[in-house]
Amino acid sequence: MSAILSADDLNDFISPGVACIKPVETLPLQKPEENTVVDPCPAHHDFAKIAVQNPYEVTVEDKIPVQDYAPAQISLTDCLACSGCVTSAEAVLVSLQSHSEVLNVLDAHLSIPLSHESGGRSLAEGRSGATEGKVFVASVSPQVRASIAATYGISELRAGWMIDQLLGGPSGLASGGRYRNGFTWVIDTNALREACLVLGADEVATSLSPSTTTAAPKSPSAPQKPILTSACPGWICYAEKTHPHVLPHLSRLKSPQALTGTLLKTVLSQRLNIRPDQIWHLAVMPCFDKKLEASREELTDVYWRPSSADRGTGPPVRDVDCVITARELLMLADTRGISFPSLPQEPVPSSSIPPFPDPVLKSYLFPRKRRRRNQEPAAGPSGGYLHHILRTQLSTHTGSKLHTTRGRNADVVEYSITRPLRHQNLIDEGVVDAEAEGEEEETIFRAARYYGFRNIQNLVRKLKPPRPRRLPGATTTMKPSLAPTSLKPAVPGTAKPFANPSAVGGSINDYA
């Protein structure tokens, strides 16, 4: 749930589940104990060995010997494991990622001193701090800047400057604390969001290529059609815990938050010649569920660090070490005794910021002018993934048209891209005018945007495999009424696409 929302603001949610699946999902298997009992079934004439597979299950048997089992451990990564509320995180669990944790880390470690190379790059100096200290970096989402701007009645640009001043300026966090640490670089996640838009369009285009439209994708990691995309971790947890049959359809792309963490830790560790665990990455995001995403086990260096690299004996290094919301950002300033409204509404002086060690990425991550691209209203409020994919498909197919249809309610919108059926090769070459032809059209791409968990539930139910019929000679068929899809939960997340290379009304396999 966003820090600026309360439970009273929600009108779209899922009732909590009753059964907790934590022991089944994550506890290590216990060595079974064999207890021989007589099978009461008269059809059998032998004995059966019964093994206690799950000691955490409640039982009324009084003959099972009592054992000291290890207590079940609950961590932040297990939030939503009970299939309960998918729009908010438990306060006890998220306390591990809070403004207090940020201050504790800043006061517990020295900042690695950086020296300036003649080429305008920075290197870790060869002192004791370079082996024991940390480099502090932060990333800020555009939604947080918009929230701060609305709170104080200023522009989004000035709100971004105030955040930069708090995190990395001399009058911000660096003005106090044990070591007077601040964040060396503050990244705008819009840069990585643009990369995610391109990668998302490429993923859909790959699914529609001739090698994958007539057969299953060659790569086992490629998603199945229809592709479900969403950057909301609440939706991902919901799918994992309640609808595992849709997991093969999930997009394999990282969110802008995770992609930013991977980029920073890989580049800085190589350029500064330090370990990835010496880079501490803070993400300032609009939603508490982003804390859950940062805690996922697969978003660590285990999945991107070369196998030849020495990882040591420590735990895996997370792409994002801590996530705080816009409200916690203000609490961060309050705890340090800093008046956030009094911070300078101007950029941090360049003399206070060491040059980024990679010149190419520096021009991309730190452009001379802040990215202020006005997103079209049609792109929606959840990142514009589907909008970008539709525009990519339109630019790929000359003479194609986009058709928009409202679904069963205002939160469901379906899209289709069509083109003239005949003389398509002439249209592609510009010899024939598509509009002048006036021919029958074929649907080459279908997609949809789903907002709200009620609508998403209706979608995933259509993706559920049918139960096999037990009658002799019965055949199992898939319902042909599935709509294409992009997903967005009730609280700000993201929503995205599915494509269809065949005519309208096809089967589930018609959608990308």
Describe the overall structure:
- The two termini are 30 Å apart.
- The model is unreliable at 1-27, 33-40, 42-53, 83-91, 213-218, 478-484 and 489-512 (pLDDT under 50).
- The chain is of the alpha/beta class.
- Helix 3 packs across helix 12, helix 5 packs across helix 6 and helix 7 packs across helix 10.
- It has 17 helices and twelve strands.
- The longest helix has 18 residues, at 190-207.
- A hairpin with a 5-residue loop joins strand 3 (114-116) and strand 4.
- The chain has helices at 22-26, 91-94, 99-108, 128-132, 142-152, 156-168, 190-207, 210-213, 233-242, 256-271, 289-294, 326-335, 359-365, 385-396, 424-428, 434-437, 453-463, and strands at 34-38, 47-51, 114-116, 122-124, 135-140, 185-188, 279-284, 322-324, 401-406, 412-420, 441-451, 487-488.
- Helices cover 29% and strands 12% of the residues.
- The relative contact order is 0.14.
- The protein has a four-stranded parallel β-sheet with strand order 6-5-7-8, with helices on both faces.
Number of strands: 12
- Helicity range of the residues? 25-40%
What would you report as the Rg, rounded to the nearest angstrom?
27 Å
What can be said about the biggest beta sheet? 4 strands, parallel
Helix/sheet category: alpha/beta
Number of helices: 17
Strand order of the largest sheet: 6-5-7-8
